[in-house]
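pls design
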């Protein structure tokens, strides 16, 4: 059987698709890049916005229209939140509400021997490699216990569930045999380990203890944190960022969402503007350089021009190297969908444009500050690589055999404001 995957959404979804792939391959199926070759198509959906749902439905209809004989299975967050919507689509043959790799494979290849279900909250076989891309994603937990008023992902993914440290060490060892970088991903990685200790007790396992153990037990690979809240980067984790010799790389993506306390309260965020600001400054002061990103939502219900000015001022002050800016998108079933004082889409679009332009300026300034310095780059193709601080570098002189390797290169900035590096033969040894 030939299987084709279509994946929407976050890095956690990309990890889930890799688990699907591995489960199918273990049953003798072949994964193909083209839907034209496939007997079945698995669509891993996202539900972060209403548009994400609509994009998934459009893709599903297109697949079935162009290939009437193909079997289409829909899984993922949108399928978990809206199973009946997909079950009623003529283009859909199977629906799995969630990300269970064994169940997904069972629906398409039921004649294969069933894998005994794993006792851990995230089941299935340990992932051995990421087929797509040179870096490996490793999901350390799933779900979220926070209740941000705008978020539907929590509704789809459920409560936070952490994987056991021993299992993660075993998986990381397998991934390290095929990849030079492993990225921690999940829905709320800052809460890693909280559910592994009895309620009311201080967590025995935390993100910092997991990172320390992986650094100690798995040499020769670097680790990167996925999206993490500012208030959940404790001093132990910060010490690892500072003292690991770059193996826990100096790159943090710290969601901000807004720089106004009144908007943060409406979003049901658990931190204030000043708590976010102060922790980011403390982190930056301890690191010689840092790739720093954030998510920002503009046009949230009730966001005034004064509120937006507070957000813009905070972006201007903090040393961000990039931003992910989103005009607010209403999600059915969330608290925010019922809030008054909607912001017009044109206003939200203009605020989004301003922040994106500001982010581009800050990113260029950071790249200029790194020009003339060295960087450890993971080679993602013969012409491109990624630095430890999450900067894209155009590479020259890279051979096919270097893809996936870590190399040290001097950085220069070209006239277009892009970082470039000429790879010396010794650097790729």
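designed seq:
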């Amino acid at each position: 059987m030939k299987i084709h995957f279509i994946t929407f959404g976050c890095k956690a979804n990309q990890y889930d698709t890799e688990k699907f792939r591995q489960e199918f391959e273990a049953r003798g199926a072949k994964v193909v890049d083209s839907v034209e070759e496939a007997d079945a198509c698995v669509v891993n959906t996202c539900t972060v916005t209403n548009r994400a749902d609509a994009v998934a439905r459009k893709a599903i209809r297109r697949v079935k229209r162009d290939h009437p004989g193909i079997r289409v299975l829909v899984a993922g967050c949108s399928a978990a939140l809206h199973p009946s919507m997909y079950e009623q689509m003529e283009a859909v043959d199977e629906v799995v509400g969630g990300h269970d790799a064994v169940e997904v494979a069972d629906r398409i290849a039921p004649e294969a021997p069933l894998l005994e279900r794993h006792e851990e909250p995230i089941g299935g076989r340990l992932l051995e490699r990421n087929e797509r891309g040179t870096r490996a994603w490793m999901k350390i937990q799933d779900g979220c216990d926070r209740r941000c008023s705008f978020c539907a992902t929590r509704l789809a993914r459920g409560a936070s569930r952490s994987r056991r440290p021993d299992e993660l060490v075993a998986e990381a060892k397998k991934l390290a045999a095929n990849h030079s970088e492993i990225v921690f991903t999940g829905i709320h990685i800052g809460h890693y380990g909280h559910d592994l200790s009895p309620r009311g007790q201080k967590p025995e396992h935390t993100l910092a203890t997991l990172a320390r153990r992986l650094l100690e037990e798995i040499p020769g690979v670097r680790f990167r944190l996925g999206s993490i809240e500012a208030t959940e980067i404790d001093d132990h984790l910060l010490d690892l960022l500072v003292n690991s010799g770059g193996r826990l790389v100096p790159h943090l993506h710290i969601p901000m969402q807004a720089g106004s306390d009144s908007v943060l309260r409406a979003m049901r965020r658990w931190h204030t503007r000043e708590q976010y600001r102060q922790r980011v400054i403390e982190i930056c002061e301890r690191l010689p350089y840092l790739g720093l990103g954030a998510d920002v939502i503009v046009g949230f219900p009730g966001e005034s021009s004064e509120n937006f000015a507070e957000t813009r001022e905070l972006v201007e002050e903090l040393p961000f190297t990039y931003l992910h800016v989103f005009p607010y998108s209403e999600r059915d079933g969330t608290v925010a969908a019922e809030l008054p004082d909607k912001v017009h889409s044109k206003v939200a679009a203009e605020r989004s444009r301003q922040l994106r332009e500001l982010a581009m300026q800050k990113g260029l300034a950071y790249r200029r500050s790194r020009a003339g310095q060295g960087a450890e780059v993971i080679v993602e193709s013969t012409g491109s690589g990624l630095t430890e601080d999450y900067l894209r570098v155009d590479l020259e002189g890279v051979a096919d055999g270097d893809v996936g390797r870590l190399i040290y290169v001097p950085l220069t900035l070209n006239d277009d404001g892009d970082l470039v590096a000429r790879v010396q033969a010794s650097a790729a040894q």
